[in-house]
Design goal:
Shape: globular
Structural class: mainly alpha
Helix content: 40-55%
Protein name: HD/PDEase domain-containing protein
CATH class of the largest domain: Mainly Alpha
Order of helices and strands: EEHHHHHHHHHHHHH
Organism: Steroidobacter denitrificans
Radius of gyration: 20 Å
Number of strands: 2
């Protein structure tokens, strides 16, 4: 008899399945591989986190999960600013925030930010459990980290007085700086004005616009918080159940509109960096290796390992990333591209976001090669 654990929103085991027969009674088909059932990977829903317990397409569900984590860590700390931030995040991404359209980027959609935010909250709590007292983030920085994670991609969202850009993906090269500007304006509205100088810097640990050695912070804990935010952003998206399909079908169109797929030289002559969504996937193994070397294990100091404190020595994020990369390796080895057959939901404010961005991409490509 083998015991299989299911995990709750806060990262603690809440269900023990003692046999394959019990799993069948619960409506789960089983496999011979214990790890696959351990985290529910075979039957994980496409808009749920790696534990299959939190619906990361729902701001309310993630707010509750983060609130549960923080109340366990800091029982007496008020979370009203956190609640306000989640409400404003939902308004911003759904087109209800004054002065802004909603989110229209199909890879960097609402689920992407919420999934990363949950990972950041878990990382912060796990970090404070496993480090000396004088190294801990504490509740104030924890709230700052979650708010910064929530709005780290706000720079993709167009302002209503912008009549030049047709899709937020056109801000790809500058979106982190735009996010910093948004965060700088937003924090004072929830009583966190004192943190603006920190938040507008640490958000750059999620991007490529500023070299890490140029990010100067007075308190080493603030830099560590930036590392936690950068780590959460990376591991959540790479552990997404549909990461490979999203790279092929959604990240590539954003790369096209953002000038990443076909950058132009000073004379305006384009060159091809990514020729298609499949080409993005062909380059993903090298990207993942580089990310792990220079960011996760490099600048960020392997902070993803702290998550083991929440998951009884396991790390569902890193396990799912390895699973995705192994699956991709098999596809690249065999050329069996139809193995990528998932069609995940997309959470933007538009009715047909994927079709819309494809139309924009076709027009853009025609214009580039004209």
């Amino acid at each position: 008899m083998v015991a299989f654990r299911a995990w709750g929103a806060s990262g603690f085991p809440v269900l023990l399945i003692k046999s394959c027969e019990e799993a069948r009674l619960r409506g789960l088909r089983t496999e011979s591989s214990a790890p696959a059932l351990l985290y529910g990977m075979q039957y994980r829903r496409s808009d749920f986190d790696v534990t299959n317990a939190v619906q990361v397409s729902s701001a309310e569900a993630v707010r509750r999960a983060v609130g549960d984590l923080f109340r366990q860590a800091w029982p007496n700390y008020p979370l009203d600013r956190l609640d306000s931030a989640f409400q404003d995040f939902e308004r911003l991404f759904n087109g209800q925030f004054p002065g802004y359209y909603g989110c229209d980027t199909v890879y960097h959609d609402l689920q992407h930010s919420l999934d990363g935010t949950l990972a950041v909250a878990r990382l912060i709590v796990a970090h404070d459990r496993t480090c000396p007292i004088d190294e801990r983030m504490g509740p104030e920085r924890a709230v700052l980290g979650v708010v910064t994670a929530l709005f780290h991609d706000a720079g993709y969202i167009r302002q209503t007085d912008d009549q030049t850009h047709r899709n937020g993906a056109e801000f790809t090269r500058s979106h982190v700086s735009r996010s910093a500007h948004f965060i700088g304006r937003y924090l004072p509205t929830i009583g966190m004005a004192a943190w603006v100088p920190v938040a507008t810097k640490i958000v750059h640990f999620t991007g490529y616009e500023v070299q890490f050695d140029q990010i100067r912070l007075d308190d080493h804990r603030d830099r560590r918080l930036g590392h936690l935010i950068g780590t959460g952003d990376l591991i959540a998206q790479m552990a997404d159940r549909c990461y490979l399909e999203k790279c092929r079908d959604r990240l590539y169109p954003e790369f096209v509109l953002g000038g990443i797929a076909m950058p132009s030289d000073e004379a305006g002559k384009p060159s091809v960096r990514f020729s298609s969504g499949l080409d993005v996937l062909r380059q993903t193994p090298d990207f993942a290796q580089e990310v792990r070397h220079t960011r996760l294990d490099g600048e960020f100091g392997g902070l993803y390992r702290t998550l083991e404190a929440l998951f009884n020595g396991r790390n569902p994020y890193m396990e799912m990333i390895d699973r995705n990369l192994d699956y991709l390796a098999e596809i690249l080895r065999t050329g069996r591209w139809p193995m990528l057959r998932r069609e995940p939901p997309c959470f933007t404010w538009e009715r047909n976001p994927v079709q819309n961005i494809r139309s924009l991409v076709i027009g853009h490509l025609k214009q580039v090669w004209k």
